[in-house]
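Dear V.,

Thank you for sending over the compound details. I've combined the ligand you provided, NAP, with the protein sequence from our construct and run the structure prediction for the complex. I'm sharing the raw inputs here so there's no ambiguity about protonation or stereochemistry in the SMILES, which I know was a concern on your side last time.
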Amino acid sequence: MNQSERVICNGVEIPLIGLGPGGMGYTPNAKPSTQVPRWNVPLRAWNKFMRSIRYHFQRSEYVSAVANGIRAGFRLIDYSTAYGNGGLIADAIEKSAVPREDIFLTGRISNRAQFSGPSAVEDQIKRHIEEYRTDHVDVLMFHWPVTGCFEKTWRVICKAYEKGLARSIGVANCHRHHIEALMKCGLKPMINQFEVHPLFTQKDLIKYNQDLDIQVESYTPIARNDDRLMRLPKLRQIAKSHGKTTVQVVLRWHIQHDLIPIVRSRNNLRQKENLNIFDFELSAEEMRTIDGFNINARLRYDPDNCDFSIL
Ligand SMILES: NC(=O)c1ccc[n+]([C@@H]2O[C@H](COP(=O)([O-])OP(=O)(O)OC[C@H]3O[C@@H](n4cnc5c(N)ncnc54)[C@H](OP(=O)(O)O)[C@@H]3O)[C@@H](O)[C@H]2O)c1
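Below is the predicted structure of the protein with NAP bound, written out as structure tokens.
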């Protein structure tokens, strides 16, 4: 099976697996954990200098890790305005020497912009694309269906699609009732990204999306390597019988359910391991066994019961 095989409902090709590098986790302007008194100007200047050095090294480590992921073969990059500056991803693409046109680049609208209203969303789309140093993203989606805002955001996203700023449009964290609401106010989403893994199989929500020809991207696909999953003897047995790791078997389970797993790793060996899942097949019985691991264990937030202002 080759990686560019899947085609979404508007005819755009999408890779079968994505790399979600997440945020860098450090910004030079972050408040220091210990406060230095205002009068101690030299120490404050020294701390500021050290923070900028630390940022410089962490930035370069992050960019190299994403570039290595692209070189290893990832062609879908999942990123969001909520994770930081898209310039990091643009740098990584450049560093990888893989042409931008070969990358399926995700743009995601933050909850903060949604709270500020449609013109803030419009501005953010423009800025996001500029930071990526491109003229369009391959999918534009919102990060969460923020109550009271997400329909308005969706209208702006649909307009951006019509203007050619995005080759496809999608949503994240949408339940059935969110999709129903969206379809009344604009185009049908082409992609819905939400949490799925063998401990939280979301069978009904996946079926609902697939019946509507909405491509599901599964996030937290390996349940963050949770022991409750990876130590299961039945999973280890399946992995052993295919000469694969338990993580590879879980990622393969997503592929065979027609899901696009978005997996995070900045470790090059693990990135390669995560891509090496296209040379074996799970039997129908093995798929059923893994389906049976479901314990409805959501590891991330429930869009019907969360505080959008902190996400
Ligand atoms: N739309 C949303 O609201 C939303 C929410 C959550 C996540 N996401 C997206 O989904 C991506 C992935 O989700 P996630 O980070 O929650 O979970 P995940 O991909 O299930 O798990 C990531 C963890 O697994 C480890 N890992 C990766 N490959 C491994 C391997 N082969 N063997 C052992 N450990 C391995 C990583 O460690 P190392 O880095 O050390 O390898 C990391 O600690 C995110 O980065 C983001 O792009 C989207």
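A first observation: The chain has a mean pLDDT of 95.

Warm regards,
I. M.
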